Amino acid sequence: MRLNGKVCLITGSGSGIGKGSALRFAQEGAIVIINDLDRAKGQETVDEIKQRGGSATFIPGDVTSPAEMEAMAQAALQTFGRVDVLFNNAGISGVGALHELELEQWDKVMRVNIAGVFLPSKYLLPSMMARKSGCIINMSSCIAEIGLARRASYAASKGAVLALTKSMQVDYAPYGIRVNALLPGTIFTPFVENYLKNSYDDPEKAIEAIKSRQLSGELGRPEDVANAALFLASDEAGFMMGSPLYIDGGVTFG
Ligand code: NAD
């Protein structure tokens, strides 16, 4: 098993890619710590992992709250003694061209998508540095590399996550910590379903348009990103440092 006995904390793992990754990590022998704002969804992921014979525990918390993220790190370290892998996955969408946005909308996307990487990392890095070992996976998006209509705040936030990943890697390489980023294309999750519902009169037509942009001709599935996250979390990716990993059906370079 590729993550046997590794303690892996995944933020926003009550749904979508985070949930898919939690199930996949558990299948590979990880002890998974589920974090989410939504207690019911977080608990559902834990229950599903346990039903399949895996190991999981839920620590609720908002990735934008310093107090809650410090408490989450303390609880994880008290219970398991270490966190081997931190997957900063939680994120929200933001729709609108720049002139259409209010500062509050802009700030909210930045807070969840960027501070939501900063805070869990801030409170877990000291223990990784002390152990001279650790792996951090940050959720960016292929939108960090390609222009898409009316996604100004979301694109800016995911570009920042990519830049932050590279900067973190330089700072923490001396401590034996790897920091890499995932850049998914369009993955069919509740996040995308809601975005399509709220942004288009005909979501089905929008899905067809997105599919036609991808070389794969299909939208991605949470499992596609989960498999890439699994690779980054495993020792197989030991030589990957500060790298962007694209799981995008060819939309970025195709
Ligand atoms: P999702 O909406 O299905 O799941 C996100 C989860 O994060 C939810 O359970 C939600 O409750 C949780 N969450 C939101 N805000 C939180 C907070 N402040 N604190 C803790 N938990 C919080 O979304 P998804 O599609 O699985 O997306 C997961 C990540 O992948 C996001 O960062 C997203 O930007 C990124 N991403 C998604 C796609 C895609 O097409 N789905 C593409 C590229 C990147």
Automatic annotation (TrEMBL):
Which UniProt keywords are present, listed alphabetically? Oxidoreductase
Short name of any one Pfam family annotated for the protein = adh_short_C2
Any one GO molecular-function label of the UniProt entry: glucose 1-dehydrogenase [NAD(P)+] activity
Question: EC number(s) of the enzyme?
Answer: 1.1.1.47
Q: Which family does it belong to?
A: Belongs to the short-chain dehydrogenases/reductases (SDR) family.
- Please name the NCBIfam families in this protein's record: PRK07231.1
Q: What is this protein called?
A: Glucose 1-dehydrogenase
